[in-house]
Each structure stands twice: as structure tokens, then as C-alpha cells.
Amino acid sequence: MIHLTKILFFLSLFTLFLQGNNFKNIQTFEADFIQTITNQSGKNAIYTGEIHIKEPNLIKWQYKEPIIKFVYIKKFTVTIIEPELEQVILTKLNKEINILTLLKNAREISSNKYISNFNNIDYTLELKENMLKAITYKDELENNVSIDFTNVKQNTPMDDQIFKFIIPQEYDLIKK
Question: Domain range for residue 152?
């Protein structure tokens, strides 16, 4: 299971990257993704899904395989819906995640490749045709994480309905 802190940090990193570097004028972003986590033994965990972002503060991160999970972020509220577990995790953030530090540290290391360090983790960001193609990093457990984006769309119309959700009554509600 992906830890809430990792999800929040990745989404912050991603949002920051859209706001900085070559993406200052992005109003919407959507893409399919494949996230591969490789442990020290060489075993892979592969997740697929899609992401939607709409300025000023709407994010939907939807995992499709191997499990279904929805992560919604609006301002300081994070809602994670896990249908297979019939649970919802609701988190109120008491402070804003400081994404400016990451932006200030991002630097181009080669054509279409950037690196940034945040919380002692180096993130490599790759572009293709001025769009985010991949993010790679080694997490705190020494796992190699790679997130590849396909079918990227920027600044296309996006209905706010994408970011609305209904929590079924029978789901357990966990507040953090």
C-alpha cells in the first residue's frame, strides 16, 4: 500500500513542476501513468492509472491496476477512496506543503532533463516535446520509483465534475 505521505509529496512535486520551469502557464494537465517501484531484490510493483490537475487547486490521482484507488486533493483536504477495502481516508493538512523549495532547487542537467532535491531525495524529471514524460527517484526505503506519463494533455478544457466524488455510506471513514 502506498503511504499517504508519499502520495502527498509526489503530488506536491508534480504540481510544483507544472508551475515551474517550462510550465508556468499550465491551467490543466491530464495523463495516463505507469508507476513502477523496484525493491532492492529487483522485484517490481507496477501501478497504472491517470491523473487530472486543474488550477488553482484541484487534483485527482486515480489508480486502476492492480488495485483501484482514488486520491483527491483540494486545498488542504486530501481524500483517499479505496473501494476494495470499502474505506475512505480523510486528511486535513495543518500547513501547506512547501513546494517552493523544490522549485528553487530544480536545475536542468541536460537537454529535457531536470534534477531537484527535496527532503534528501533527488528527483529526476524528464520532458518530451515540452511535456512531462517521466519522474524517477529513490525513496527512503531504497526502492527505485519510476513514473512514466503517456497521452499527456495540457490546457485542454476540463470539467470540474472530474473532481467530485461520493463516499458510499457503508465505507469506513478514517480521519487523520
Answer: 4-175
